[in-house]
Write a structure and sequence with these properties.
2 domains, disordered N terminus, alpha+beta, six-stranded mixed sheet
């Protein structure tokens, strides 16, 4: 009788243990589920860090880099037909020989006018030379050589996206004149070492948006001024 009771007791213990183990399985799953969720949440900040922050230089670069390279390539190649396609349809493009944008005297051309500039020998008054104050009377091809693409800016030493790289005596009012714009600056800190950086140059391309398309509205050449 004792042996029979012992066997029954052992069977009862085994059944109870098996039931308890089965009951614990869902709890284990919940704990693991929570751990997985935490792992996913902890990765979210890393994912967000990969998204470019709006307004940052990298964000601006992602918007305008290819457009700016296309425009600069057309300038380098003296391809006025291609450049004209990128010019703002309402505002045209303003040419500034120095860093200060003179809205009263700097010349502005429409896209149609720019197409004819390459073959034109007409002399324009672009402004006045720094230092002497003499009138800057040049044809567009001559102006292009001296006050637009006087260095290989496609291979510039530095490029800034809404970031000023060149600093000189000339007042930089670009962002005041061109509000809500993107300005890409191609910059060389020096041309000839013997001048110890006094011969730095830069070219700024100014873009404004119309109907979700970025057009060029300003071409600013900048260099050391007295």
């Amino acid at each position: 009788m004792k042996r029979k009771f012992t066997v029954i007791l052992l069977l009862f213990v085994l059944i109870s243990t098996s039931t308890a183990c089965t009951a614990l399985q869902p709890n284990k799953g919940k704990v693991e589920g929570k751990n997985i969720d935490k792992a996913t949440q902890s990765s979210d900040p890393d994912d967000e860090s990969d998204i470019l922050q709006e307004g940052s230089e990298e964000y601006i670069k992602s918007i305008i880099e290819e457009i700016s390279i296309d425009v600069l390539t057309s300038i380098k190649n003296f391809d006025m037909e291609k450049l004209a396609d990128a010019i703002h349809p309402d505002k045209g493009v303003r040419f500034s020989p120095y860093g200060y944008v003179d809205v009263d005297n700097n010349l502005v051309f429409t896209a149609e006018e720019v197409k004819n500039l390459a073959a034109s020998s007409k002399t324009y008054l672009w402004g006045h030379y720094d230092g002497s104050g003499d009138p800057m009377e040049l044809s567009f091809p001559d102006y292009h050589k001296k006050f637009i693409y006087d260095l290989d800016f496609l291979n510039a030493e530095q490029i800034g996206y809404n970031k000023v790289l060149s600093h000189g005596n000339s007042l930089n009012n670009s962002f005041e004149v061109y509000k809500d714009s993107i300005i890409v600056e191609y910059y060389f800190s020096s041309v000839d070492p013997k001048y110890e950086g006094m011969d730095w140059r830069s070219l700024r391309l100014v873009f404004e948006k119309k109907d979700d398309i970025w057009y060029i509205v300003g071409i600013i050449h900048n260099q050391w001024t007295i």
